[in-house]
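Exam prep: given the inputs below (a chain plus magnesium ion), describe the expected output before reading on.
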Amino acid sequence: MKAALLVGGYGTRLRPLTLTTPKPMLPLINTPFLETKLLHLREHGIREAILSTGYLPTVFDEYFGDGSRLGMKLTHITESKPLGTCGAVKNVEKLLGAEPVIVCNGDILTDLDVRALVDYHRAKGALVTISLAPVEDPTQYGLVPLDEDGRIKEFLEKPSWDQVETNLINAGTYVLDPLVLKKVPRNENYSFERELFPELLEKGKPLYGFPSDCYWLDLGTPEKYLKAHEDILEGRIEVSIKGKEIEPRVFIGKKVRIEKGAKLLSPVVVGDEVTIGADACLGPCVCVGNKVNIGAGSRVEDSVIMNGVTIEAECEIKGSVIGNNSYVGRRTRVSDCSVLGDNVRIGDGNELSRGIRIWPSTVIDSERIKFG
Ligand code: GDD
Ligand code: MG
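Solution:
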């Protein structure tokens, strides 16, 4: 069975991180998220995938190439303009063949039983089967009410609260009979959620929903990106973690120097070539990339520190993300879901909080920012 992965979006809600890296290629526990996604599909018997790219396409190609390193066959197809979710799949129609295919949104972390989804699709004789997940706030997603037999009654993308009659939403993995693409216009922006699905339902076609209680998270915002890290670190979803487990859920890479009095509080992951200064404290729920320096006495908690970062002495980083090769001066505090892009330079004694987002390569002098 083949899969088509939608990985062409701009990832605007995850800026500034996505200004330099497309969302599916952001590191998740020090591995590009899409690698984890592809390995999950491979475990379920999918050996061939088409990556439908658009925004920063070379990042995918350079990292995965033809997929042989993952034991998969990957084809990269890049759109010259955004074609929307359905338009992107129409664009690769020729590569799909006649058998049902899996279509995945490229930003969903899940341990969905893909084989069970396919079996259900076949048993129901469906044209499309949509995996569903229960959520507390369905207004951010595609709402999918079902009848008693599991058949989809309606598809409401980003509904208002008065339209909400179920907590089941489109979980972003479909089994699709390529027949449904026949009438989709070629080379035009076209949406599964706002166009094809509602149109097929209008015509009375058999679309089914597959609810499951698997782990499910859309990585679309900084809060969710941090949540995905926390859930993997705490073992709510099983994802393989690089490094040596020196204590329960404390993983460290090669050439890690831990100076006197420094502490690692589980769960925590540290990459290769990292120095943790005297009396510094990392964790709980921290992921540190490769070639990172954490200064003496600094504390890092509930945060993601990407590759090449330097955090000087006596800093406090809490619930935040620090992008690749950024520098954080002494006694600086970063908290409350603040996000620093790549190559940012923050001088000593700043206080960044309240979800502040710092664009790549920004330089902030010492003692410039304080929230009262
Ligand atoms: N190739 C390509 N071209 N990919 C695209 C395009 C495009 O024009 N537009 C979006 N994508 C990709 C994105 O990269 C992402 O992986 C996926 O399609 C979904 O886009 P999002 O922007 O993340 O959509 P969403 O999260 O608001 O909503 C979608 O996902 C929800 C589940 O997380 C919808 O499918 C909802 O119905 C669903 O509930
Ligand atoms: Mg999304």
